[in-house]
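Request: Mind sharing a record?
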Amino acid sequence: MGTYVRRRILQTVPLIIGISLVVFGIIQAAPGGPEGSLLGTGRFVDPQVILSYRHRLGVDQPIPIQYVRWLGAAVSGDLGVSFATTRPVVNLIVERLPATLELMASSFVFAAIIAIALGIYSALRQYTTLDVVATGVSFLGIAMPVFWFGLILQLVFSVKLGLLPVAGTETVGATSLADHLKHLILPAFVLSFRNVAGWSRYLRSSLIGVSAADYLRTARAKGLTERRVIGVHAVGNALIPLVSIMALNVADLFSGAVITETVFAWPGIGRLFVQAMFARDYPVLMGILLMGSFTVIVFNLLADIMYGVLDPRIRYE
C-alpha cells in the first residue's frame, strides 16, 4: 500500500502542472483583462494608466513567461496578488475556506446518513410506496437545477413561512450557535440533495445485486440473524463501490458550492470565485481552480485507499 500511495502522489505532480497549464491558457484567452476593475467604474481612464497598471501586475509579458513566473511562485505557496483588492490570493482563500468546508462537511454528512438509510430501506422494501416515492424524488433531485431549488426553498421557508433565514451566516446582532445553524440548514440541504438522490439509488442497486450472493446464504445457514446478515455482510459489501462515487462527488460539492453560496450569500470560496470571475481577477480564479483540482486528485486517492480497507481482497502491491 505504501508503494502504491507514493507512486500515486508522484503522478499528481505532472497532472497538476497539466491542469494548471490548460486552465491558465483558458483564462488568458478570455476577453478583457485586469484593467476591467478600472474600466468597470464607467469613467474614462487614460490608456497610459492602463498600460502602467498592466506593467505593474506583470500581465504585459508574453503568456508563456507569465505562466512560468506564476508556476514558480505557486510552487513556493505564492499564488499572486488579487487584481481587484491587491491582497495575496492565499490570504483571500484562507479567509473563505472555513465557511466552505463547514458547508461541504455538513452537506456531505447529511447526504451520507440519509442516502444510506434510504438506500437500504428501498432495497429491502422494493416496490413499496416509500420505495416508489424515493425513486421519484431521486430522479427529481438529479434533474433539478441547484440554483432553482435554492430559490424555491428561500421563497417557501424564508419568505412565505418565515421559518429560516433567507441568506448569510448570522442575523445582525445575533452571534449564537443556534442562529448560525439556522442559516446553515437551507444551503446545506440544497447542496446535499442531489447527492442524497444519486447515492441512495446507487446503494439500492448495489444492495439488490449482492442480496442473492452465495456468501449471504451461507451466513444464514450458519444461523446468523437476518439483521447481522444484512447489516454486516450485505451492506458492507454494497458500500464498497459507493465509496468511490462519494469520493468523486466531493468535486461536485466544491463546484455546487459556487452556485449555492451565491444564492444564499454564504461567504465561502464559491462566492469568492463568482466575484473574481465578474471582476476578471485572474490570480484568484487560478488559485481556486488549482485548489479544486488538487481536491479532486486527493479524494480519488483516498477512494482507492478505502477500497483496500473495506475489501481485504484488494491489494495494491
